[in-house]
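Severity: low
Component: inverse-folding endpoint
Summary: output formatting inconsistent between runs
Steps to reproduce: submit the following structure tokens with default settings.
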């Protein structure tokens, strides 16, 4: 049994360096977020209203930020589903490993920025929901 639940997800609010010419938000590993950043990736050019990312991760921790625009992150631990609507570049969803997640309702032009605790590894993915449940609730 892999114990993380949707209640372990946290919305983090990062500080903003305000300037008349624009804002800056900085995220440092093991400071504003509790892991070392091994990878950064971002989703962009997602057609408005599109969905992505129905999968789980065995070990990956992630921070998900709407760097531009907005979208919803639906997290599911096999028992409970929660939806987080992200729309501010200084707010991030911190996700523990072991959850199923989907991304939904992308506004056109949005950018989904992900800071990840591990390099890309297909072995860490649970691509099929039944496979996820079997993994999640095995003894
Ligand atoms: P994936 O995480 O499966 O995205 P989604 O579930 O939203 O469709 O990524 C799609 C493909 O992109 C994946 O098959 C391989 C590639 N990819 C990388 O090469 N490196 C990465 O860090 C990520 C996230 C994806």
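Observed output (run 2 of 3):
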């Amino acid at each position: 049994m892999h114990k993380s639940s949707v209640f372990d997800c946290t919305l983090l609010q990062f500080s903003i360096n305000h300037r008349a010419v624009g804002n800056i938000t900085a995220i440092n590993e093991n400071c504003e977020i509790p892991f070392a950043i091994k990878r950064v990736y971002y989703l962009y050019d997602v057609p408005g209203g599109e969905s992505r990312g129905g999968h789980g991760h065995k070990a990956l921790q992630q921070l998900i930020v709407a760097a531009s625009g907005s979208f919803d992150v639906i997290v599911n631990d096999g028992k409970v589903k929660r939806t987080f609507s992200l729309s501010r570049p200084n707010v991030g969803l911190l996700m523990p490993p072991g959850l199923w997640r989907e991304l939904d309702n992308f506004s056109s032009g949005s950018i989904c920025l992900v800071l990840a605790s591990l390099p890309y590894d297909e072995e860490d993915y649970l691509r099929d929901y039944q496979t996820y449940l079997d993994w999640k609730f095995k003894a």
